[in-house]
Write a structure and sequence with these properties.
Blueprint: H1 3-20, H2 24-35, H3 40-47, H4 53-93, H5 111-125, E1 129-130, E2 136-138, H6 139-142, E3 161-162, E4 171-173, H7 179-186, E5 192-201, E6 213-223, H8 228-243, E7 249-256, E8 259-268, E9 285-294, H9 296-301, E10 310-317, H10 318-326, H11 339-342
Parallel strand pairs: 1-5
Antiparallel strand pairs: 2-4, 3-4, 5-6, 6-10, 7-8, 8-9, 9-10
Helix pairs in contact: 1-4, 2-4, 5-10
Bound molecules: adenosine-5'-[phenylalaninyl-phosphate].
Amino acid sequence: MSMIEQLAAIGDDAESRAAEVATLAELDSLGSELLGKRSRLGELKKGLRDLDEDERRAAGRALNDANARVQAALDARRADLEAQERRRRLDDERLDLTETIATRALGHLHLVTQTHDRLEDVFVGMGFTVAEGPEVETDWYNFQALNIPESHPARSMWDTLYVDLGPPESTVLRTHTSPVQIRVMEGGPPPIYSIMPGRVYRRDTADASHMPVFHQIEGLVVDKGISFADLAGTLEAFTTAYFGGAIHSRLRPSYFPFTEPSAEYDINCLFCLGEGCQTCGRTGWMELGGCGMVHPNVFASVGYDPEEWSGFAFGFGTDRLSMNRHGINDIRELFTNDIRFLTQF
Ligand code: FA5
């Protein structure tokens, strides 16, 4: 084989072997094998000195060309391998910001918040809007505007916590969500179909069914021609929507200064479904809250004409409502923040 043929074979061999190399380290060792002093090219280069002048020039050019061909094959493969390596690293280091870590325990909304969300869903579905008011209230909103003047005996229905602000006993932590009725009515003319959830405060000692800080949801409807039948129908529609078709409501005569007539709102006991059991005191009923037709004096305190407008209001304790729904027998469990208890809901 002539030297030119040998050099062509070296070039072909280098191109096919370089294409098969899988890593940069293998490519480096192929480089030294093909281009190093002991390589076939190196040996041929050494043989140049045995040739005469003309042959040496031609063979030298052929050798340089072959050398360049081998080098080009190695460089091309190096570029490929480096690009592959870069792609692999980018893939490995990619940050997936949508990724969730399956093992991390996520928290969830507190049972009372879940209860409020569900109540809001049901009432919004019935056409009500949701309103909120401040927890620190004036005596006027919490009592006077609700037809409970100073020194009225009904004040003893709510054992009040006062805030040291302004004249003595003029600022209170609201004892119920009813002051939000006044704020909603002051906010604009009827018709009003609103619910008002929130936290309330009383000087009650904590026991299995009382907390000094608890939650209520208030409802207020004011429109033309609203009757007690609308109140009873709305509460019954709410009861079946929230508790399911097996549970019904009843209204019992009661007294609240801001409604006339007033009633207690009861539902069938959720534990015995009306049969009578220990939880419901063998009555078959559970009390959820108060309600009634808005008192004309309340309309007068916000400037509504009681001859033109009528309405009803209701207010339930939502902590007790979620206790009833989930079979919890001590209200304090809701607020001791024992994670083993809370994760059940
Ligand atoms: C009221 O607070 C009236 N504002 C309700 C109302 C609104 C009547 C609109 C008429 C028209 P009462 O004080 O009964 O009413 O409280 C309502 C509910 O709050 C009770 O039925 C009970 O479920 C809950 N509740 C009362 N005190 C506590 C307490 N210390 N801890 C937990 N829940 C309580």
